[in-house]
Every structure is written in C-alpha cells, then in structure tokens.
Write a structure and sequence with these properties.
Blueprint: H1 2-9, H2 15-36, E1 40-42, H3 45-69, H4 71-76, H5 81-96, E2 100-102, H6 105-126
Antiparallel strand pairs: 1-2
Helix pairs in contact: 2-3, 2-6, 3-5, 5-6
C-alpha cells in the first residue's frame, strides 16, 4: 500500500494532463515574477516560454538532487536555504536561455520567492484531494497457533 501511495504522489505519475498543468503553473509564476520583480527580464514571448520550459525541467531533474545534497543547510536555516536553491536554479535558467536575464542574486532571490509562492498557491488549488485506497483490503491468513508444551 505504501508503494502505491508513493507512485501516485510522484511528479512523473498522472500523464500528460499533469505535465501540462505543471508547465502552465510554472509559466504563470515566471511571468508574474518577470512583471513584478525588477531585474528579471524576458526580451520576447518565446524567451519567456523557453525559460518556463527550462525551469520546469530543471525543477524536475536537478532540484531533487540539489535538495538532497543541501539538506543539512536547509534544515539548519529552517528552510530559508530553499530560496537560495531556487534562486540558483533561476540563474541557471537565465544562463541557458538567451533573452531571459537575471541581473544579480537579489533579483534572482526575489523572483524565486515569487515563483515559489505562486506555484505553491496554484498547486494547492489544482491538487486532487481524493484518497487512494486499495480496491480490496488484503486478507490476512492466520495459521493456528503451535502448541509448544501441551502439559
């Protein structure tokens, strides 16, 4: 039962609809960050879309690895290092995508904070809250007890 719960909570489970929803949520968050945080700029719509796709892929692949590697810092800072981690991923996105610029660490940290808050709120609205339960509860086969001392 635990294994099926882990599979159903995995970001890779859910098919194309969940993947598209994830990209759209990240897109809304990135475009909101670009419009509100000074220092984040997208030269064109295609640069913004490319930044959204790259950031989504980095969050899916690289972020869990960096999360595990920096877990002591995250615990020590009571989770504030996650903002630094997200800012570094945003800077890496700006390095990989031409036309998407981040002009320093503080704009990256502000953008990461906006993106984190917006994605958290939007993900909480789109999450499927139905409990996943097995179709039939497993039957326990009980054997008769062994009599050790029949006296």
């Amino acid at each position: 039962m635990r294994f099926t719960r882990v599979i159903h909570e995995s970001p890779f489970h859910g098919g194309l609809r969940n993947a598209i929803t994830r990209v759209l949520i990240t897109g809304v968050a990135v475009f909101l960050a670009v419009t509100t945080v000074p220092g984040l700029e997208a030269d064109s719509l295609t640069a913004g879309v490319a930044a959204v796709l790259v950031l989504t892929i980095l969050n899916l692949i690289l972020r869990p690895i960096l999360f595990v590697l920096t877990l002591p810092l995250i615990v020590f800072s009571l989770g504030l290092f996650l903002v630094v981690l997200n800012a570094l991923l945003l800077e890496l996105t700006a390095y990989l995508v031409k036309g998407f610029t981040v002009s320093g660490f503080w704009p990256a940290a502000g953008g990461a904070l906006v993106i984190s808050i917006v994605t958290t709120v939007l993900n909480s609205w789109t999450v499927d809250r139905r409990r996943i339960e097995p179709a039939d509860p497993p039957m326990e086969v009980r054997r008769p007890p062994k009599v050790i001392n029949p006296d």
